[in-house]
């Protein structure tokens, strides 16, 4: 993007009235649609500024705290990158040896790490029924700390994946779709198939498929969810997707047939997950420390998976899509047949064709996170971005 | 604070002749009183500048190395925050797999991590008789490295808790008292009760009570130390407190009666610890790798603790204090009865009443650490702070 | 160095035509000699600017990713320091719980951590035949990602030690030699003894001796490699050293006699290592997870070592060198007899005499790494350094 194009995206951003300032970003379905538009537009501007070598350093110091309660590589680096481009210092909270059991302690820890902190990014996706709850507690704690005069500023809590949603992923995916089809408007009526896919592993989180069906239904897309019997998502979020579709003029279909989902799809998103019932069982066993029963559960689930080895995104399935050319999406890493496993979610030829596209999809995440920080920390994000463009301070020294 | 108020604190700072430049901050009782005044005043200014959105970035790069030989959450984030607000990059030295056994090796490691380093913060509180010694060795090593021309700059070593003292905590506590009572002068003659309190755990460090009795006696306070028989602090530090009180015109009392300590106290600081005799025994067993005997020691100590369950800071005890309204202090996290444990150091109603106050107490730590860095790294800290105020570079982008 | 001296080093840098821009730094023997000159000169300038308190912040944010597949203290801090002085945020990739098994996955991970990344530093020295291969794969992956438009910039991959070479060490060593003898030119004809030395440990990497013989032979030095029978380096790299010597007009000798190597040497570099045959065996056992056989191998090697306890750099051996005053070098930490072990690589009196010199040798590493980043990320590094000197932005606030 040249400066004029960046300027015009900022102008569009300013047409959206957002209420993210001094707030958090936890679940997309709690966000008014203007906030979602604003995040996409701000992310696009930040990406443009980065590529144009314009510094986006809006802070001269301050902390960006991350708390990864589950493994992470790409989100970790996206968060670190977002912090760095805004001028914040990343600091990771390693809880491995601490006790965060009672509400009281969550409140205290949240305040103790926040005295010089602008944002707290949290990944907490292992225990069903708990991840979002924990993030909301942290958000309430820093809100209270700010109101009580303890915290000089009110850090934003950003969901880097919970048991319900994965908004930095789904918003990056939406930005990818927007760029691919030319505009958000052009997504109306486009069919996206969010389907389960076979994997030789088990226990993959539900947050991605849930995030996708809940978000894409808000933009008038025709969303089809497909999975084998017994691989259910959380029912409340299925309801959310249905309501969103009704409101936006899109549609939401639910099927147990992968081919039906792929038929005439403009976009396919085949990905493995465990059912929420399994996740509930697993959560109970993890809490009980019953590793023997956990092994049994894993065996049972893997055996279940084996019955659905044909849920693989093969060239055959791709041929069913619109003109055989649907956009293939994945949050990565994908289980690629013959590459990262003997049999997996996607055929090697399909994946390789779309590989650079999936990498670009992933790239947006850094900028989406940076946009969320900007929108939650500044009352007038459009003017902030304008000022950065005016200043034109080079990010990388210019001769 | 507005700019004029900040300016007047800087002026007061300039009235104190300090000798911290090119030195370390290890034990408060080794510091001339002017250094202590200067740290408090500089911390206050830095807190004011942060709240006024004035950048305090005195470095454009350079490292702030931390070495945590024991768990830490709040000090870790305080140190990271202080580094970030001054423009340094935090880098943590994880020794888990290295051998730091011989004096030679300490010297070498100290130099190897210091080529681009302005400050080294160390927590080493597990082994009695060793923590301070190690910190002093590191300080001597970088001093030598600087004199030999190996190090381009002489990093300051800052004690983030050792076996003897916890100066970033006690100085933050002192700043809290000063703000609470209006001035350092008004602390003269005020009674502070540093008392042991019951906890269902054992082995908590001695550095906080030792740091408090040694520091508050220097400012004319009436310090009463109370604990059950057998929960002694290091005798040499008891002596330090006595001498300090004699010199400052304050007083230092030592009792085995919690009620006596609380009676008419203006400030109470009830907190669990293990006796130095236990810590000595534990150190020997840890070195000997005798985990069986360590378990025995723990059992014995926990049984001892049980005899003093009534050493809890209840509403009843609080009623004994001046007008029943003493300031309750804690370095956090506190063991709160019915909240974080069945029975602990403090009643839930007492803690909740003072909770925001204890959070504010904790907040000062970031700024105290930043002040220590500033004073040890700059010969004229007052002029540095003046310049920051003059420049008025926003920390967070201003429109 | 004063500004004029710095300016003249920059001028010399500009006489060298380099091709490092948009490339990597993996093995010195793959680099044209101009690149090596340029790294040395740029490192010298950066060291001068640091000491003159001139900011070298050429980036306003962006990541410097490190990936340490083996323990590291000094290289870790050198890399963190280099990142900080250039304005990058260090971010460490901890693979402990990830699977990086297939080429495909290396490619993906390399891209996922690189969206906002300027440099990736990798240490991978444990498995013979693999470290360099992995680094080259990462380099190819980010090159492809950049060409495909996935990465906004092309991060440089820098070898922080592999199975073959340790270029940040050997280049720091070369800078040390240059400073010690006055110029690179004056190294011509000087004799350097790279010798094995006894250590009570086993399995030390080959990368340092290999890096030294391959690099110093390029600058006309008379390089003698000495070790007991059976402690061979990788044969291909022995060949490289021979060819280099022939081309540069230096020489390369290979002996099994430590005294012969020390005789009339201007520089000695006595250091323990395991033979490449042992490293090959060890690699196979590590891959097979055969810890029993690994223990056996260790025992056998330690027993072998015992036969060569007299390979210690004693005062006696030092007397054999030119006027008894050869420069002693070591990459540190050294096994010092009577200090860090009962019997080791070097006598305590020898080491202590050269200790500050070895520390200075180590200091250069930060600046060598920073120079490699500068040269790989900027097409006109000389003009960049000139601009930094012109701007004269203080690194540490000036009054």
Q: How is this structure best described in words?
A:
The structure is a homotrimer of 399-residue chains. Chain A is of the alpha/beta class and 399 residues long. The first copy, chain A, folds into 2 domains: 3-165 and 365-391, Aspartate/ornithine carbamoyltransferase (Rossmann fold, 3-Layer(aba) Sandwich); 169-360, Aspartate/ornithine carbamoyltransferase (Rossmann fold), CATH 3.40.50.1370. Chain A is built from 14 helices and 9 strands. Chain A has a 5-stranded parallel beta sheet. In chain A, helix 5 (131-147) links the parallel strand 3 (117-124) and strand 4. The two termini of chain A are 21 Å apart. The mean pLDDT of chain A is 95. The A-C interface holds A 50-51, 55-57, 71, 73-74, 76-78, 80-87, 89-90, 332-333, 336, 339-340, 356, 359-360, 362-363, 366, 393-397, 399 and C 58-63, 65, 88-89, 91, 93, 97-98, 101-102, 104-105, 108-109, 111-113, 115-118, 145, 148-152, 377-378, 380, 383-384, 387-388.
